[in-house]
Amino acid sequence: MATRKSAPATARKTTVKSGKKDFNGGTFLDFDRDTELKAYREMMLIRRFEEKAGQLYGMGFIGGFCHLYIGQEAVVVGMQMALKDGDQVITGYRDHGHMLACGMSARGVMAELTGRRGGLSKGKGGSMHMFSKEKNFYGGHGIVGAQVSLGTGLAFANRYRGNDNVSLAYFGDGAANQGQVYESFNMAALWKLPVIYIIENNRYAMGTAVSRASAQTDFSMRGASFGIPGYQVDGMDVRAVAAAAEEAVAHCRAGKGPLILEMLTYRYRGHSMSDPAKYRSKDEVQKMRSEHDPIEQVRARLLEKGWATEDELRAIDKDVRDIVADSADFAQSDPEPDVSELYTDILL
Amino acid sequence: MPRMTMIEAIRSAMDVSMERDDRVVVFGEDVGYFGGVFRCTQGLQQKYGRTRCFDAPISESGIVGAAIGMAAYGLKPCVEIQFADYMYPAYDQLTQEAARMRYRSNHQFTCPMVVRMPTGGGIFGGQTHSQSPEALFTHVCGLKVVVPSTPYDAKGLLIASIEDPDPVIFLEPKRLYNGPFDGHHDRPVTPWAGHPAADVPEGHFVVPLGEAATVREGSAVTIVTYGTMVHVAAAAAEETGIDAEIIDLRTLLPLDLEAITRSVRKTGRCMVLHEATLTSGFGGELAALVQEHCFYNLEGPVVRVAGWDTPYPHAQEWDYFPGPARVGQALKDMMEA
Q: Which segments of the protein form a coiled coil according to its record (chain B) (predicted)?
C-alpha cells in the first residue's frame, strides 16, 4: 500500500461532544456573514427543490419512489463546508439534498426524477439512483446500507493513491442495523481508512421508530468495539454540523482512520410519498418545525445580527425559486429516453 | 363469501395460521407496529401481541438466519423481506442454511419456514424495487418456490406454505396486490372486487403446492406462465383472438410438469412467459422440459417471452415490461410460423 502524506492535525479544541443527546446547547462554529448566507441559500435550494418534487409527484410527473429530504438540510450543507476537491460523497436513497449540496444541477436531478433523457442517469435510474463523476458523488443507492461498504472502498482508494482525500458515507438509523455496516467498520478501522460514517438519525426507519428496531439507540457508539470514535451532533444546526465536519475531516486527513458522526435530525415528510406517517404525532413534527428548523435558525441569526434584511432574504428566495422552477420546467419538457437506450450502459 | 384483495387474502392466511398454530410467528421490517410496507400484516400485532408479530431491524441476513434457527427448533416463522430486491444479503442463509438443513442433518432437523417477498415491477420502482429473482431460488435444491396470481390462490398457497415441512419462498407479485393487472398500464386500475378469484373463504383452506391451474382452456397454443403474467397472457389471448390455453404454474418448485405436458401435447405449441429477464430465467428450464417431454408433439419451437436482459429501468418501465402487445405479437408470430 502506498503511504499517504500526513496532514498536520489541527489544534482546534473539540467542538463536538460524545454522548450528547439534546438538540440544544451544542458547540458550533461561529459563522461569518458570508457563510451564514451561503448556508441559507443552499438549504433553501434543497427545501424548495424538494417541495417542488413533492408537487410534481402529486401531479403525476414523478412516479414510483421519491424520498424527500425536507428537515434534514443542515446535515449535507454543513458537512459539505469541510470538503475540498476530490473528497467523495456517497449516500442511500434519500439523496436529492446530497446531490444539490455537491453542486449537481437542479435540472439534472429533477429530470431524473421525471425519467427524462436530460436526467443525470438519462432517466433510467430514477430518484434513488444518480451519480456525478464531475462532482465526486458516487450515488444514490436504493438498497439500504449497501453504500456503506462502497464508501469504505472509496476511502481505501484514497489511501492507496496516497492523497489526503476523505470519503463521506451517509446512511440512516435504519441502515445502521445492516451487517455489512459492521464489516465495513472493521475494515476501515483495521486499515485506518479516511472515511466519515455519517449516520443521519431522523428517528424513523420508514415507519419504525428507532427504539423498536435498535438495541443501542446511541448510534455514535456503534463503532466502539472497533475503536472508531463517534460523536452525536445537532443535525438541525448547520453550525454544529460544520464544526463536527471540520474536526472529522481533519482527523481523517491526518491519517487517524475512520470516524462516526451521528446527526440528530428529523424528516418532516413521510418516508416516501405513500407514507401516511401514522407512527408519529403531528405535534411531534410541528414541534421540530417550530423550534429546530435548520433554515429558520439561520434566517433568525441573519436578521438579528443585521447581516441581511428581509428584502435581501426574499431576493435569495426568489433566486432559488427561479432555479427550482427552471428545473421543473425542464423536467417536464425534456423528452423521455429513446427506446434504443434500453440496452445501453449495461456492458461494453 | 368475502371479497378480498391479494393483500387481504395474504393477511387472512397469516391470521388463520396464527390462530390455529401458536408456533407460527410473523416478523420482518416494519411488519409489526406499522403493519408492513404493503399493509399485509396490518392488525396482526394488535391481535396476537408483540411476541408473535414484531418488527425486525433492517438486517435481512439476520432476519432469515434467525428464522432458520427458530424453525430448526420447531417454530414456524413466516418472515417478510420488504422487497424481493432486498433479499440478497439473506441469499447466503437461504441457499446454504435453509435449503440444506434437512440434507445436512440427516433429516434430524428441518426448516419449516416461509419467506414472503413482494416481487416484480409495474409500480415505477426502478432497478432496486422491481426485480423478479425467482430463478435464483429455483436453481437451489431444497427450496420450494411459490408465485400466486389471485387472492384465492394467495391465501390457499400461503397457508399450505406455512404448513409445509420445508422452506418456502413465497413471491407476491406486487402489481397484483390491489387488482388483476393485465399489462394495460394506461387504463384505469381494475380492482379485485368482481373478479371470481377475489371470493376467498374466511377460514382455513389450502391450495396444495405443486399443482398448476388451467386458467383458460384453448386449443391453439399453450402459454406457461405465473404471477402477473397470467393476467397479461389472458388479455393477449382475448385481444388477438388466438385460442390459447393458459397454465398458471402457481408453484415453480415443485413443478406440475404433468399439467404442462398434457396441454402442450394437445395444442402442439408452447410459449413460456415471465416478467423476469430472459437469459437463465426460469423460462429456460420450462422450455427445456417442454422440448424433452413433448418434442414430437411440437409444431414449432418453444417461444420465450420475458423481460429484456437489462436492469429494470425507471423511465422505460413499459418498454421493459412484457405487456399484452408484445405477448400478442409473439402469439401471432407463432401461429404464422
A: none
